[in-house]
Design goal:
Helix content of chain B: 25-40%
Strand content of chain A: 15-25%
Radius of gyration of chain A: 18 Å
Shape of chain A: globular
Largest sheet of chain A: 5 strands, antiparallel
Structural class of chain A: alpha+beta
Protein name (chain A): PP2C family serine/threonine-protein phosphatase
Helix content of chain A: 25-40%
Protein name (chain B): VWFA domain-containing protein
Pfam family, one (chain A): PP2C_2
Order of helices and strands of chain B: EHEEHEHHEHEHH
Strand order of the largest sheet of chain A: 1-10-9-6-7
Oligomer: heterodimer
Number of helices of chain A: 7
Strand order of the largest sheet of chain B: 3-2-1-4-5-6
Organism (chain B): Nocardioides humi
Distance between the termini of chain B: 68 Å
InterPro entries (chain B): VWF_A, vWFA_dom_sf
Largest interface: A-B, 46 and 33 residues
Radius of gyration of chain B: 17 Å
Protein backbone atom coordinates (compact mmCIF):
# COMPACT_ATOMS: atom_id res chain seq x y z
CA UNK A 1 0.00 0.00 0.00
CA UNK A 2 1.11 3.52 -0.60
CA UNK A 3 0.99 6.37 1.79
CA UNK A 4 0.43 9.31 -0.52
CA UNK A 5 0.68 12.98 0.29
CA UNK A 6 -1.38 15.36 -1.83
CA UNK A 7 1.72 16.55 -3.67
CA UNK A 8 2.89 14.83 -6.84
CA UNK A 9 5.32 11.99 -6.20
CA UNK A 10 9.03 12.51 -6.61
CA UNK A 11 11.02 9.90 -8.51
CA UNK A 12 14.51 8.74 -7.64
CA UNK A 13 16.76 7.27 -10.32
CA UNK A 14 19.39 4.57 -9.88
CA UNK A 15 21.51 2.92 -12.53
CA UNK A 16 24.47 0.68 -13.20
CA UNK A 17 26.25 -0.98 -16.10
CA UNK A 18 28.89 -3.73 -16.35
CA UNK A 19 30.91 -5.01 -19.27
CA UNK A 20 30.28 -8.61 -20.32
CA UNK A 21 32.92 -11.31 -20.05
CA UNK A 22 32.80 -11.96 -23.81
CA UNK A 23 33.69 -8.33 -24.49
CA UNK A 24 36.53 -8.53 -21.99
CA UNK A 25 37.75 -11.71 -23.69
CA UNK A 26 37.54 -10.17 -27.15
CA UNK A 27 39.04 -6.86 -26.00
CA UNK A 28 35.93 -4.96 -27.04
CA UNK A 29 34.53 -1.90 -25.28
CA UNK A 30 31.30 -2.00 -23.31
CA UNK A 31 28.47 -1.51 -25.79
CA UNK A 32 25.64 -0.82 -23.35
CA UNK A 33 24.83 2.70 -22.25
CA UNK A 34 22.65 4.24 -19.56
CA UNK A 35 21.57 7.80 -18.76
CA UNK A 36 19.25 9.12 -16.08
CA UNK A 37 17.87 12.56 -15.29
CA UNK A 38 15.54 13.86 -12.63
CA UNK A 39 14.07 17.13 -11.44
CA UNK A 40 13.02 16.75 -7.84
CA UNK A 41 11.14 20.03 -7.75
CA UNK A 42 8.92 19.11 -10.70
CA UNK A 43 8.56 15.42 -9.87
CA UNK A 44 10.00 14.58 -13.27
CA UNK A 45 12.49 11.85 -14.14
CA UNK A 46 13.75 9.98 -17.19
CA UNK A 47 15.84 6.82 -17.44
CA UNK A 48 17.19 5.24 -20.62
CA UNK A 49 19.29 2.18 -21.39
CA UNK A 50 20.63 0.99 -24.73
CA UNK A 51 22.38 -2.12 -25.97
CA UNK A 52 24.77 -1.76 -28.90
CA UNK A 53 24.72 -4.86 -31.05
CA UNK A 54 28.37 -5.88 -30.93
CA UNK A 55 28.30 -7.90 -34.14
CA UNK A 56 31.12 -7.16 -36.60
CA UNK A 57 28.76 -5.14 -38.81
CA UNK A 58 27.92 -2.87 -35.86
CA UNK A 59 31.48 -1.90 -35.00
CA UNK A 60 30.50 1.52 -33.63
CA UNK A 61 27.58 0.31 -31.58
CA UNK A 62 29.16 1.55 -28.35
CA UNK A 63 28.84 5.06 -29.77
CA UNK A 64 25.39 4.23 -31.14
CA UNK A 65 24.19 3.15 -27.70
CA UNK A 66 25.58 6.27 -26.03
CA UNK A 67 23.88 8.49 -28.61
CA UNK A 68 20.65 6.51 -28.16
CA UNK A 69 20.35 7.19 -24.42
CA UNK A 70 21.25 10.86 -24.86
CA UNK A 71 18.62 11.18 -27.60
CA UNK A 72 15.99 9.45 -25.48
CA UNK A 73 16.56 11.60 -22.41
CA UNK A 74 16.59 14.77 -24.49
CA UNK A 75 13.33 14.01 -26.27
CA UNK A 76 11.45 12.62 -23.28
CA UNK A 77 12.41 15.61 -21.16
CA UNK A 78 10.75 17.81 -23.77
CA UNK A 79 7.38 16.10 -23.48
CA UNK A 80 7.15 15.75 -19.69
CA UNK A 81 5.09 18.96 -19.26
CA UNK A 82 2.60 17.57 -21.81
CA UNK A 83 1.96 14.36 -19.85
CA UNK A 84 -1.03 15.39 -17.74
CA UNK A 85 -3.03 12.17 -17.82
CA UNK A 86 -2.39 8.57 -18.87
CA UNK A 87 -4.72 8.77 -21.83
CA UNK A 88 -4.63 8.26 -25.59
CA UNK A 89 -3.38 11.81 -26.16
CA UNK A 90 -0.41 11.07 -23.91
CA UNK A 91 0.24 7.78 -25.71
CA UNK A 92 0.29 9.59 -29.04
CA UNK A 93 2.62 12.20 -27.58
CA UNK A 94 5.00 9.43 -26.45
CA UNK A 95 4.82 7.82 -29.90
CA UNK A 96 5.78 11.19 -31.44
CA UNK A 97 8.65 11.37 -28.94
CA UNK A 98 9.73 7.94 -30.14
CA UNK A 99 9.85 9.24 -33.70
CA UNK A 100 11.81 12.25 -32.48
CA UNK A 101 14.28 9.96 -30.70
CA UNK A 102 14.90 8.06 -33.93
CA UNK A 103 15.34 11.36 -35.80
CA UNK A 104 17.66 12.81 -33.16
CA UNK A 105 19.71 9.62 -32.94
CA UNK A 106 20.07 9.51 -36.71
CA UNK A 107 21.20 13.14 -36.79
CA UNK A 108 23.73 12.54 -34.00
CA UNK A 109 25.07 9.45 -35.77
CA UNK A 110 25.44 11.39 -39.01
CA UNK A 111 27.23 14.16 -37.15
CA UNK A 112 29.59 11.64 -35.57
CA UNK A 113 30.16 9.98 -38.92
CA UNK A 114 31.00 13.30 -40.57
CA UNK A 115 33.64 13.87 -37.92
CA UNK A 116 34.82 10.25 -38.05
CA UNK A 117 34.47 8.93 -41.62
CA UNK A 118 34.64 5.20 -42.25
CA UNK A 119 38.08 3.86 -43.09
CA UNK A 120 38.66 1.85 -46.28
CA UNK A 121 38.75 -1.32 -44.16
CA UNK A 122 35.40 -0.43 -42.58
CA UNK A 123 33.99 0.33 -46.01
CA UNK A 124 34.93 -3.18 -47.09
CA UNK A 125 32.28 -4.33 -44.61
CA UNK A 126 29.75 -2.23 -46.52
CA UNK A 127 29.66 0.50 -43.87
CA UNK A 128 29.04 3.40 -46.27
CA UNK A 129 26.33 1.54 -48.16
CA UNK A 130 24.29 1.44 -44.94
CA UNK A 131 25.84 4.21 -42.85
CA UNK A 132 23.65 3.76 -39.75
CA UNK A 133 24.32 0.03 -39.46
CA UNK A 134 27.69 0.36 -37.71
CA UNK A 135 26.01 2.27 -34.88
CA UNK A 136 23.16 -0.23 -34.37
CA UNK A 137 21.59 -0.23 -30.93
CA UNK A 138 18.41 -0.87 -29.04
CA UNK A 139 16.75 1.77 -26.86
CA UNK A 140 14.56 1.43 -23.77
CA UNK A 141 13.32 4.46 -21.87
CA UNK A 142 10.86 5.37 -19.15
CA UNK A 143 9.75 8.80 -18.01
CA UNK A 144 7.69 9.98 -15.06
CA UNK A 145 5.79 13.24 -14.77
CA UNK A 146 4.16 12.98 -11.38
CA UNK A 147 1.68 10.14 -11.66
CA UNK A 148 1.92 9.79 -15.44
CA UNK A 149 4.51 7.34 -16.70
CA UNK A 150 5.67 6.84 -20.25
CA UNK A 151 7.51 3.84 -21.68
CA UNK A 152 9.06 3.32 -25.07
CA UNK A 153 11.32 0.66 -26.53
CA UNK A 154 12.90 -0.48 -29.79
CA UNK A 155 14.59 -3.89 -29.64
CA UNK A 156 15.22 -6.41 -26.91
CA UNK A 157 15.62 -5.89 -23.19
CA UNK A 158 13.01 -5.59 -20.47
CA UNK A 159 10.82 -2.75 -19.21
CA UNK A 160 9.07 -3.72 -15.97
CA UNK A 161 6.91 -1.87 -13.49
CA UNK A 162 6.36 -3.06 -9.93
CA UNK A 163 3.26 -2.28 -7.90
CA UNK A 164 3.42 -1.49 -4.21
CA UNK A 165 2.34 -5.07 -3.40
CA UNK A 166 5.40 -6.40 -5.26
CA UNK A 167 3.52 -7.55 -8.34
CA UNK A 168 5.52 -6.99 -11.54
CA UNK A 169 4.10 -6.31 -14.99
CA UNK A 170 5.40 -5.51 -18.44
CA UNK A 171 3.71 -2.35 -19.65
CA UNK A 172 4.76 -2.62 -23.29
CA UNK A 173 3.36 -4.94 -25.96
CA UNK A 174 5.57 -7.78 -27.20
CA UNK A 175 7.75 -7.32 -30.27
CA UNK A 176 6.97 -10.31 -32.53
CA UNK A 177 10.32 -9.96 -34.28
CA UNK A 178 12.32 -10.79 -31.16
CA UNK A 179 13.34 -14.46 -31.28
CA UNK A 180 16.26 -14.47 -28.87
CA UNK A 181 18.78 -14.46 -31.71
CA UNK A 182 17.92 -11.25 -33.51
CA UNK A 183 16.79 -7.87 -32.28
CA UNK A 184 14.94 -4.90 -33.69
CA UNK A 185 17.18 -1.87 -33.90
CA UNK A 186 17.44 1.87 -34.30
CA UNK A 187 19.56 1.21 -37.38
CA UNK A 188 17.06 -0.94 -39.27
CA UNK A 189 14.97 0.37 -42.14
CA UNK A 190 11.78 1.91 -40.70
CA UNK A 191 12.76 1.57 -37.01
CA UNK A 192 9.42 3.07 -36.02
CA UNK A 193 7.80 -0.20 -37.16
CA UNK A 194 9.42 -1.72 -34.07
CA UNK A 195 8.61 1.15 -31.71
CA UNK A 196 6.54 0.10 -28.71
CA UNK A 197 5.00 2.72 -26.42
CA UNK A 198 2.78 2.76 -23.37
CA UNK A 199 1.50 5.24 -20.80
CA UNK A 200 0.58 4.23 -17.26
CA UNK A 201 -1.27 5.94 -14.43
CA UNK A 202 1.17 5.34 -11.59
CA UNK A 203 -1.44 6.23 -8.99
CA UNK A 204 -4.16 3.94 -10.30
CA UNK A 205 -1.70 1.09 -10.88
CA UNK A 206 0.01 1.68 -7.52
CA UNK A 207 3.43 1.79 -9.21
CA UNK A 208 6.22 1.70 -6.65
CA UNK A 209 9.17 1.35 -8.99
CA UNK A 210 10.18 0.69 -12.56
CA UNK A 211 13.27 -1.05 -13.86
CA UNK A 212 14.70 -1.23 -17.34
CA UNK A 213 17.45 -3.66 -18.22
CA UNK A 214 19.36 -4.82 -21.28
CA UNK A 215 19.01 -8.45 -22.25
CA UNK A 216 22.29 -9.30 -20.55
CA UNK A 217 20.55 -9.26 -17.19
CA UNK A 218 17.85 -11.81 -17.94
CA UNK A 219 19.12 -14.09 -20.70
CA UNK A 220 21.05 -16.48 -18.48
CA UNK A 221 18.43 -16.90 -15.79
CA UNK A 222 17.41 -20.44 -14.92
CA UNK A 223 13.83 -19.24 -14.56
CA UNK A 224 13.62 -17.84 -18.09
CA UNK A 225 9.97 -16.88 -17.75
CA UNK A 226 9.77 -15.61 -14.19
CA UNK A 227 13.08 -13.90 -13.43
CA UNK A 228 11.68 -10.42 -14.12
CA UNK A 229 8.80 -10.91 -11.68
CA UNK A 230 11.24 -12.08 -9.03
CA UNK A 231 13.55 -9.16 -9.78
CA UNK A 232 10.74 -6.65 -9.35
CA UNK A 233 9.53 -8.16 -6.11
CA UNK A 234 13.08 -8.31 -4.76
CA UNK A 235 13.94 -4.74 -5.71
CA UNK A 236 10.91 -3.43 -3.87
CA UNK A 237 11.61 -5.69 -0.88
CA UNK A 238 15.26 -4.63 -0.73
CA UNK A 239 14.34 -0.95 -1.00
CA UNK A 240 11.98 -1.37 1.94
CA UNK A 241 14.17 -3.52 4.14
CA UNK A 242 17.61 -2.08 3.40
CA UNK A 243 16.96 1.35 1.88
CA UNK A 244 17.82 2.74 -1.51
CA UNK A 245 21.37 3.49 -0.46
CA UNK A 246 21.96 -0.22 0.00
CA UNK A 247 20.27 -1.00 -3.31
CA UNK A 248 22.58 1.45 -5.05
CA UNK A 249 25.62 -0.15 -3.39
CA UNK A 250 24.47 -3.62 -4.46
CA UNK A 251 23.75 -2.77 -8.11
CA UNK A 252 27.32 -3.31 -9.40
CA UNK A 253 27.45 -6.77 -7.81
CA UNK A 254 23.98 -7.67 -9.10
CA UNK A 255 25.04 -6.74 -12.61
CA UNK A 256 28.50 -8.32 -12.44
CA UNK A 257 27.28 -11.88 -12.04
CA UNK A 258 25.07 -12.06 -15.16
CA UNK A 259 27.75 -10.15 -17.10
CA UNK A 260 30.25 -12.85 -16.17
CA UNK A 261 28.05 -15.90 -16.56
CA UNK A 262 25.97 -14.65 -19.49
CA UNK A 263 28.91 -12.94 -21.20
CA UNK A 264 26.96 -9.90 -22.40
CA UNK A 265 27.09 -6.31 -21.14
CA UNK A 266 24.50 -5.87 -18.42
CA UNK A 267 22.74 -2.63 -17.57
CA UNK A 268 19.86 -1.62 -15.34
CA UNK A 269 18.14 1.66 -14.55
CA UNK A 270 15.44 2.21 -11.92
CA UNK A 271 12.78 4.79 -11.17
CA UNK A 272 11.60 4.59 -7.57
CA UNK A 273 8.80 6.72 -6.20
CA UNK A 274 9.35 8.56 -2.96
CA UNK A 275 6.02 8.04 -1.29
CA UNK A 276 5.73 4.26 -1.32
CA UNK A 277 5.36 3.14 2.24
CA UNK A 278 8.47 1.73 3.79
CA UNK A 279 11.06 2.93 1.29
CA UNK A 280 13.95 4.73 2.91
CA UNK A 281 14.81 7.46 0.48
CA UNK A 282 18.01 9.42 0.92
CA UNK A 283 18.72 11.96 -1.77
CA UNK A 284 20.04 9.71 -4.54
CA UNK A 285 18.90 11.53 -7.64
CA UNK A 286 21.38 10.95 -10.46
CA UNK A 287 21.24 14.17 -12.40
CA UNK A 288 23.06 14.52 -15.67
CA UNK A 289 23.00 17.88 -17.41
CA UNK A 290 21.60 17.51 -20.89
CA UNK A 291 21.93 20.28 -23.48
CA UNK A 292 18.67 22.15 -23.92
CA UNK B 1 14.94 -13.32 0.75
CA UNK B 2 18.20 -14.15 -1.07
CA UNK B 3 20.44 -11.17 -1.74
CA UNK B 4 20.99 -12.36 -5.34
CA UNK B 5 18.79 -10.27 -7.60
CA UNK B 6 16.79 -12.07 -10.29
CA UNK B 7 17.35 -15.64 -9.21
CA UNK B 8 19.82 -18.32 -10.23
CA UNK B 9 21.96 -18.05 -13.34
CA UNK B 10 23.17 -20.81 -15.61
CA UNK B 11 25.64 -20.85 -18.45
CA UNK B 12 23.89 -21.18 -21.76
CA UNK B 13 24.68 -24.24 -23.84
CA UNK B 14 26.87 -23.80 -26.91
CA UNK B 15 26.33 -26.89 -29.02
CA UNK B 16 29.21 -28.01 -31.21
CA UNK B 17 28.19 -30.59 -33.79
CA UNK B 18 30.72 -32.33 -36.04
CA UNK B 19 29.25 -33.94 -39.16
CA UNK B 20 31.90 -36.29 -40.51
CA UNK B 21 32.10 -38.15 -43.81
CA UNK B 22 33.13 -41.81 -43.35
CA UNK B 23 32.29 -42.91 -46.90
CA UNK B 24 34.45 -45.42 -48.78
CA UNK B 25 36.59 -42.74 -50.38
CA UNK B 26 37.80 -41.69 -46.92
CA UNK B 27 39.84 -44.92 -46.89
CA UNK B 28 42.12 -43.48 -49.59
CA UNK B 29 45.37 -41.75 -48.79
CA UNK B 30 45.06 -42.10 -45.02
CA UNK B 31 42.13 -39.67 -44.89
CA UNK B 32 40.15 -41.45 -42.19
CA UNK B 33 43.29 -41.73 -40.05
CA UNK B 34 43.91 -38.04 -40.59
CA UNK B 35 40.31 -37.24 -39.64
CA UNK B 36 40.62 -39.26 -36.43
CA UNK B 37 43.90 -37.56 -35.64
CA UNK B 38 42.31 -34.18 -36.31
CA UNK B 39 39.42 -34.84 -33.91
CA UNK B 40 41.85 -36.15 -31.29
CA UNK B 41 43.95 -33.03 -31.69
CA UNK B 42 41.03 -30.63 -31.68
CA UNK B 43 39.70 -31.83 -28.31
CA UNK B 44 42.37 -30.06 -26.21
CA UNK B 45 41.73 -26.91 -28.23
CA UNK B 46 38.02 -27.21 -27.53
CA UNK B 47 38.82 -27.56 -23.84
CA UNK B 48 40.78 -24.32 -24.10
CA UNK B 49 37.82 -22.71 -25.85
CA UNK B 50 35.53 -23.93 -23.10
CA UNK B 51 37.81 -22.30 -20.53
CA UNK B 52 37.92 -19.10 -22.60
CA UNK B 53 34.13 -18.98 -22.71
CA UNK B 54 33.05 -18.92 -19.06
CA UNK B 55 29.61 -17.79 -20.18
CA UNK B 56 28.96 -20.86 -22.34
CA UNK B 57 28.64 -24.56 -21.60
CA UNK B 58 30.38 -26.13 -24.58
CA UNK B 59 28.69 -29.40 -25.52
CA UNK B 60 29.88 -31.68 -28.33
CA UNK B 61 28.03 -34.10 -30.58
CA UNK B 62 29.36 -36.11 -33.51
CA UNK B 63 27.34 -37.42 -36.46
CA UNK B 64 29.10 -39.68 -38.97
CA UNK B 65 27.61 -40.54 -42.34
CA UNK B 66 28.24 -42.95 -45.21
CA UNK B 67 25.32 -45.10 -46.43
CA UNK B 68 23.33 -43.70 -43.54
CA UNK B 69 23.85 -41.25 -40.70
CA UNK B 70 25.01 -42.61 -37.37
CA UNK B 71 25.42 -40.70 -34.13
CA UNK B 72 28.88 -41.35 -32.71
CA UNK B 73 28.20 -39.01 -29.80
CA UNK B 74 24.45 -38.45 -29.66
CA UNK B 75 23.97 -36.82 -26.29
CA UNK B 76 25.38 -33.31 -25.96
CA UNK B 77 28.57 -34.02 -24.01
CA UNK B 78 30.91 -31.64 -22.17
CA UNK B 79 34.19 -31.61 -24.05
CA UNK B 80 36.22 -32.77 -21.05
CA UNK B 81 34.11 -35.94 -20.86
CA UNK B 82 34.77 -37.05 -24.44
CA UNK B 83 36.92 -40.11 -25.02
CA UNK B 84 37.38 -40.35 -28.76
CA UNK B 85 37.04 -43.81 -30.30
CA UNK B 86 38.54 -43.93 -33.75
CA UNK B 87 36.06 -43.91 -36.61
CA UNK B 88 36.27 -46.48 -39.38
CA UNK B 89 35.39 -45.63 -42.96
CA UNK B 90 32.66 -47.78 -44.53
CA UNK B 91 34.07 -49.80 -47.43
CA UNK B 92 32.26 -48.78 -50.63
CA UNK B 93 30.09 -46.55 -48.45
CA UNK B 94 28.15 -43.77 -50.14
CA UNK B 95 28.12 -40.09 -49.19
CA UNK B 96 24.56 -39.67 -47.90
CA UNK B 97 24.98 -36.09 -46.79
CA UNK B 98 21.33 -35.19 -47.44
CA UNK B 99 20.17 -37.91 -45.09
CA UNK B 100 22.73 -36.80 -42.51
CA UNK B 101 21.50 -33.19 -42.63
CA UNK B 102 17.92 -34.38 -42.27
CA UNK B 103 18.91 -36.40 -39.18
CA UNK B 104 20.75 -33.37 -37.85
CA UNK B 105 17.75 -31.08 -38.32
CA UNK B 106 15.60 -33.59 -36.44
CA UNK B 107 18.05 -33.49 -33.53
CA UNK B 108 18.03 -29.70 -33.53
CA UNK B 109 14.24 -29.74 -33.05
CA UNK B 110 14.88 -30.75 -29.45
CA UNK B 111 17.88 -28.52 -28.86
CA UNK B 112 16.39 -25.80 -26.70
CA UNK B 113 12.79 -24.77 -26.53
CA UNK B 114 13.58 -21.45 -24.92
CA UNK B 115 15.27 -18.44 -26.47
CA UNK B 116 18.25 -18.74 -24.18
CA UNK B 117 20.71 -20.99 -26.04
CA UNK B 118 23.46 -19.76 -28.30
CA UNK B 119 23.19 -20.62 -31.97
CA UNK B 120 24.90 -24.00 -32.46
CA UNK B 121 28.12 -24.45 -34.39
CA UNK B 122 28.08 -27.14 -37.09
CA UNK B 123 31.33 -28.27 -38.69
CA UNK B 124 30.98 -30.48 -41.78
CA UNK B 125 33.91 -32.48 -43.17
CA UNK B 126 33.47 -34.32 -46.49
CA UNK B 127 35.64 -35.63 -49.29
CA UNK B 128 33.11 -36.38 -52.01
CA UNK B 129 30.00 -35.50 -53.93
CA UNK B 130 26.73 -36.15 -52.04
CA UNK B 131 24.87 -39.28 -53.14
CA UNK B 132 21.16 -39.98 -52.74
CA UNK B 133 20.78 -43.74 -52.49
CA UNK B 134 18.66 -43.24 -49.37
CA UNK B 135 16.18 -41.17 -51.38
CA UNK B 136 17.09 -37.93 -49.65
CA UNK B 137 18.95 -35.47 -51.85
CA UNK B 138 21.52 -33.05 -50.53
CA UNK B 139 19.18 -30.16 -51.40
CA UNK B 140 16.33 -31.73 -49.42
CA UNK B 141 18.56 -32.37 -46.43
CA UNK B 142 19.94 -28.85 -46.51
CA UNK B 143 16.45 -27.39 -46.81
CA UNK B 144 15.31 -29.43 -43.81
CA UNK B 145 18.21 -28.00 -41.85
CA UNK B 146 17.51 -24.43 -42.95
CA UNK B 147 13.82 -24.83 -42.16
CA UNK B 148 14.84 -25.48 -38.57
CA UNK B 149 15.25 -22.38 -36.42
CA UNK B 150 18.52 -23.55 -34.94
CA UNK B 151 19.81 -24.94 -38.22
CA UNK B 152 19.17 -21.65 -39.98
CA UNK B 153 20.90 -19.59 -37.31
CA UNK B 154 23.77 -22.01 -36.71
CA UNK B 155 27.33 -21.03 -37.44
CA UNK B 156 27.97 -23.42 -40.33
CA UNK B 157 31.52 -24.23 -41.39
CA UNK B 158 32.67 -26.84 -43.88
CA UNK B 159 35.95 -28.43 -44.85
CA UNK B 160 36.59 -30.29 -48.08
CA UNK B 161 39.07 -33.15 -48.12
CA UNK B 162 41.03 -33.76 -51.32
CA UNK B 163 40.24 -32.89 -54.89
CA UNK B 164 36.97 -34.83 -55.10
CA UNK B 165 35.29 -32.81 -52.39
CA UNK B 166 32.16 -31.14 -53.75
CA UNK B 167 33.05 -27.57 -52.88
CA UNK B 168 29.85 -26.26 -54.47
CA UNK B 169 27.68 -28.28 -52.08
CA UNK B 170 29.87 -27.33 -49.14
CA UNK B 171 29.51 -23.66 -50.08
CA UNK B 172 25.73 -24.07 -50.17
CA UNK B 173 25.88 -25.67 -46.74
CA UNK B 174 27.81 -22.68 -45.35
CA UNK B 175 25.46 -20.20 -46.99
CA UNK B 176 27.40 -17.09 -46.01
CA UNK B 177 29.73 -16.04 -48.85
CA UNK B 178 31.98 -14.23 -46.38
CA UNK B 179 32.85 -17.44 -44.54
CA UNK B 180 35.99 -19.16 -45.84
CA UNK B 181 35.54 -22.60 -47.39
CA UNK B 182 38.71 -24.59 -46.92
CA UNK B 183 39.98 -27.71 -48.67
CA UNK B 184 42.57 -29.86 -46.94
CA UNK B 185 45.05 -31.57 -49.21
CA UNK B 186 47.09 -33.38 -46.58
CA UNK B 187 46.73 -34.61 -42.98
CA UNK B 188 48.48 -31.59 -41.47
CA UNK B 189 46.08 -29.22 -43.22
CA UNK B 190 43.07 -31.21 -42.06
CA UNK B 191 44.18 -30.98 -38.44
CA UNK B 192 44.94 -27.28 -38.73
CA UNK B 193 41.69 -26.47 -40.51
CA UNK B 194 39.49 -28.36 -38.04
CA UNK B 195 41.23 -26.60 -35.15
CA UNK B 196 40.73 -23.25 -36.90
CA UNK B 197 37.07 -23.97 -37.65
CA UNK B 198 36.41 -25.02 -34.06
CA UNK B 199 37.97 -21.86 -32.65
CA UNK B 200 36.26 -19.60 -35.19
CA UNK B 201 32.89 -21.23 -34.57
CA UNK B 202 33.12 -20.93 -30.79
CA UNK B 203 34.01 -17.24 -31.03
CA UNK B 204 31.07 -16.49 -33.30
CA UNK B 205 28.45 -18.76 -31.85
CA UNK B 206 28.78 -17.17 -28.44
CA UNK B 207 27.95 -13.68 -29.72
CA UNK B 208 24.48 -12.38 -30.41
CA UNK B 209 23.59 -12.12 -34.08
CA UNK B 210 22.01 -9.03 -35.55
CA UNK B 211 21.11 -8.98 -39.19
CA UNK B 212 22.52 -11.23 -41.89
CA UNK B 213 25.88 -12.94 -41.92
CA UNK B 214 27.52 -15.40 -39.59
CA UNK B 215 30.09 -13.02 -38.19
CA UNK B 216 33.03 -15.35 -38.83
CA UNK B 217 36.01 -13.02 -38.87
CA UNK B 218 38.91 -15.34 -38.03
CA UNK B 219 41.45 -15.50 -40.82
CA UNK B 220 41.95 -19.10 -41.93
CA UNK B 221 45.41 -20.63 -41.81
CA UNK B 222 47.51 -20.71 -44.97
CA UNK B 223 47.99 -24.12 -46.62
CA UNK B 224 50.96 -26.10 -45.34
CA UNK B 225 52.72 -29.19 -46.66
CA UNK B 226 52.33 -30.91 -50.02
CA UNK B 227 48.89 -31.37 -51.60
CA UNK B 228 49.10 -35.17 -51.47
CA UNK B 229 45.33 -35.83 -51.50
CA UNK B 230 44.88 -33.78 -54.66
CA UNK B 231 47.67 -35.50 -56.47
CA UNK B 232 46.79 -39.01 -55.28
CA UNK B 233 43.05 -38.53 -55.86
Amino acid sequence: MTDRPDADPVWTTLSGTTIGSVHIRDELPIQDAVLTWSDQAQGHAVVAVADGHGHKFHFRSDTGAALAVISAVEELRRILPDLRAADEAARERVARAGAAIVETWTAKVEHHLTANPYSPAEDELGASADPLRAYGSTILAAAAAGDVMAFLQIGDGDSVLVASDGTAARPLPEDPDLDGLHTSSLCQPRPLDALRVAVVDADADQVALVFLCTDGFGRSRVDADGWWRQTGEQLLGFARTHGLGWVREQLPEWLAEPALIGGDDTTMALLVRNDVAGIVRPDLADTVPVPE
Amino acid sequence: MSDRLGGALARKPLHFIFVLDVSGSMMRGGRIQALNNAITEVLPHLKDEARANPHAELLVRVLAFANEPQWIIEAPTPVDQIHWKRLEAVPRGFTELGSALQTLSGALDHLDESNSAFPPAIILVSDGRPTQSSGVTFAEGLQALLNNRWGATAVRLALGVGRDADMHSLRRFIGDEDVPLLRADNPEQLVEYIVWASKAASKVASRPVVGPGSGVTAVPPSPIGDPIWSTLG
